[in-house]
Amino acid sequence: MTIYFEELAVGDEWTSDAYEITQDEIVEFAEQYDPQWFHTDPERAAEESIYGSLIAAGFHTAAISTRLFVDCFLSDTATLGGKGIDKLRWHEPVRPGDRLSIRADILELEVETDSRGLADIRIETSNQDGEVAFSMIALVMFARRDED
Question: What pLDDT is recorded for position 1?
Answer without folding.
Answer: 82
